[in-house]
Amino acid sequence: MSEPVISLENVEVHFENERLLDFGNDPETVRAVDGVSVDVAENDVLSLVGESGCGKTTLGKTAIGLQRPTHGSVKYRGHDIWEIREGNSDADLEWSDIRTSLQIIHQDPGSALNPNRRLLSILSEPLRQVNPDLSKSEKRNRIYSLLERVGMNPAADFADRYPHQLSGGEKQRVALCRALLMNPDVILADEAISALDVSLRVEMMDMMLDLQAEFDTSFVFISHDLSNARYFSSHGNGKIGVMYLGQLAEIGPAEQVINEPQHPYTEVLRWATPDLSLDDHGEMPMRKIDIPDPINPPSGCRFHTRCPKAREACTRANPTAYEHGEQRVACFREDDTHEYWDSPELTDD
Amino acid sequence: MTQSHDQHTEHIAVDDPIIEVRDASVTYDEGTSYVLDGVSLDLGRGEILGVVGESGSGKSMLASALLDAVPDPGLLSGTIEYHPDSGAATDILELDTEDLRALRWEEISMVFQGAMSSFNPTMSLRKHFVETLEAHDEDVEAGMDRAHELLEDLYLEPDRVLSSYPHELSGGMQQRALIALSLVLEPEVLVMDEPTAALDLLMQRSILLLLDDLKEKYDLTMLFITHDLPLVAALADRMAIMYAFRLIEIGQTEEIINHAAHPYTRALLNSTPNLDAPLEEMRPIEGQSPAPINMPDGCAYHPRCPLAEDQCRTEVPDFHIVAGDHGSACFNWRESYDEIELVHLDDGERAIPEGDRQ
After folding, report:
1. Which residue numbers delimit the ABC transporter domain (chain A) (predicted)?
2. Interchain pair A290, B257: CB under 8 A
3. What's the pTM?
4. Is residue B9 part of a domain?
5. Model pLDDT for residues B169-204, shown as the tens digit of each residue
6. According to the 3-state scheme, what is the secondary structure of chain A?
7. What was the ipTM of the complex prediction?
8. Hey, of A276, A278, A281, A295, which one would you mutate to test binding to chain B, going by the most B CBs within 10 A of its CB?
9. Is residue A236 part of a domain?
C-alpha cells in the first residue's frame, strides 16, 4: 500500500456551545466527531453515510483541513496539516499547497458561485492560482474543453452565462469543474448530489467518476443515502464509512458493507433505503425515531438507546472497532466471548 | 404494430373517487405556455396515491390546482370535483373564498416540504394549533386533545413539542409536528408535496411508516407528491407518473414497478440508484425534459424516446389500457417491454408474456 493522501488518527472535534443568558454554567460541549481514524488513499472513493447530525460533514471538513480537530491528528502525505498551517513544521510543504490540493463542493452550489461573474471568469480564477503563466487563450481553451467534458455544450455559450442562468445540475457541474481546475488530490463532495432529482444522480456520479480517473483525484463523498454511497464507492473501488453520533459504527469495502452489514445501525440504514422490491419492509427496526442530542450522547455504545439488538452490556462500555474481514465494526456482537451475550436485552418500558 | 387493437381512454377512473380531476390545465402568458396540461386523475377514497415527477414536471402545480391555489398570474381551467363521504359533490373551482378557506383545512389539508417555512418562527407550537382551531371555529379544548393524540401517533412528546418554538425542534420533529397540525381539523384528504425531501433517509422512511399508520387510524385519503419513485413505492397503493406537465402513466404500484408500460417510466426506474440492481446496468435518462415554452408537438417525451415514430411526433397519445386500471399514454407501450428492460427485475421476470398483459 502506498502512503495515504490523508490520514486521520483518533480525531475529535468538540464544539463549545456557549449558551446565552446562562452565565453560571459550564458551556455545553457538542461532540461532533469523537475518536475517528480513517485514511484516504490515492484515487480513493470514501463515502461517509449517516443521519443528519451524525458528524459526517464535520469529519469531512476536518479531513480537508477546513476544521481544526480538538484532539488527534490530520496528516497530508505524512505531514501534520495543522503544524504546517501554524508554521510549526520543518516539512517542505506550504499550507497554500495543501489547501489547493484539498477541495470541496457543497450541496448548494448556487451559494458558492459568485452571482455577478460569468462562468468564464469564475473558472479562470482557479487556473490563475495554479498556473499563473497560462495565456488568456490557453485558459479559455482549457475551460471550454472541461465544460464540454461535463456535458455543457456549446461551451462558449455556457462560459458566457451567469450562475442564475443555470439549472441546479449545471451549477453543480460548474462547482465540480472549478474544483478540478485546481488539480486537487482530494475533493470533498458534501451532499453534492442530494439536491438533484433522483433521476439525475446517476449521471452526476458517473461524471464525477469519469473525471476522477482523468484528473487522478480522490473523493470523500458525504451522503445520507446508502444507495448513492454504494453506487459511488463501488464504482470507485472504495469504502463506505457509517457514522453514528460522531463515531464510525462500521467501515469497509462498499459492496461488503451493503451486502453483509455487520453493525445493527448499518442494517437500519439499509432498511431505510428505498428499493424497488416491494417486499413488506415491516416494522421500523429501531426503538426510537429521533437521534439523541450530541451534547449529551448516551453512555456506553451510543446506539444502545435505539438499537434493536441492544443489551445491558451495551450501556456500560463503548465498543472499540473489531476487525471483521476487511470491515471494521464497533459492536460487541463481533466478539463471541463478550459479556454482551449473557446480559439481558434492553427494553424501553 | 398492434396499436389498432388497443383500447384507449382519456382517463383511468376508479370506483369510488373522493376527488375527480378533469382536464386540469394551468397556463401563463395568456395561454401560450402550459405548466399543467390537461391532467385527468381520480383519487380513490381511502387510497394512497403517489404522484411522481422530476423537477419542473408540473407535479407541484397539480397539488396547488387541487386546492385552487395556483400562484398568480396562472390561469387554472378544467374541473376538480370533491365528493365528501355524505352530501353532494362540489366543484372546488366554483367555490367562493369563504367556502374554499373552510374546505382547505377541514376537508383537504396540505403539507409542504420544509416545515420551517410553514411555521411562524415567533409562535410556539401550541399557539399554531390553537390559532388553527380558533380560525375554524372549533372547540379548542377538544381540538387540543386531538393534537395530543396526533403528536403521540407521530412519536413526539406532546407537552414538550407544544411548548417549543419551531427552531427548537429538529427537522424531522418539525415535519412530524406539521403533519399533526394538518390533521387537527380532521380532514378527509391529506395532500403532501415532497413532505420529507429535506430530511435524511432514515427519517423519511420512518415518517412514511407513520403516515401509513395514520391513514388506517383516521381513515384518510392521501396524495403524496415526490421526485423519489422508490421512496413512495413503499407507501402508495397506486402511482401516477408525470412528465412535462402531463400525466403519462397510472396504475397499481406493483404494476408500475414491475410492468411499467411507458418508455419514460421504464427509463426512470432504471436511472434510480438502489441497493439491489446490478451496478453496471443503472443508467441515466439521455437528454432533458422540455421547458413550458418549448413543448414538442405530439408526445412530449418523443425527443428522448428510443421508440419514437411519426405518430408520436404529431399526436398526443391518450391512455392505452395495459391491464385493468393500468394506463399508459404511449402508442408503443408493448414495444417498450422489449426495448427497455427493467434492470431491477431478475432476468427470468423481465420478459412479460404478452397474453398476461391484457
Report:
1. 18-270
2. no
3. 0.90
4. no
5. 999 999 999 999 999 999 999 999 998 888 899 999
6. CCCCCEEEEEEEEEEEECCCCCCCCCCEEEEEEEEEEEEECCCCEEEEECCCCCCHHHHHHHHCCCCCCCEEEEEECCEEHHHHHCCCCCCCCCHHHHHHHEEEECCCHHHHCCCCCCHHHHHHHHHHHHCCCCCHHHHHHHHHHHHHHCCCCCHHHHHCCCHHHCCHHHHHHHHHHHHHCCCCCEEEEECCCCCCCHHHHHHHHHHHHHHHHHHCCEEEEEECCHHHHHHHHHHCCCEEEEEECCEEEEEEEHHHHHHCCCCHHHHHHHHHCCCCCCCCCCCCCCCCCCCCCCCCCCCCCCCCCCCCCCEHHHHCCCCCCEEECCEEECCHHHCCCCHHHHCCECCCC
7. 0.86
8. A276
9. yes
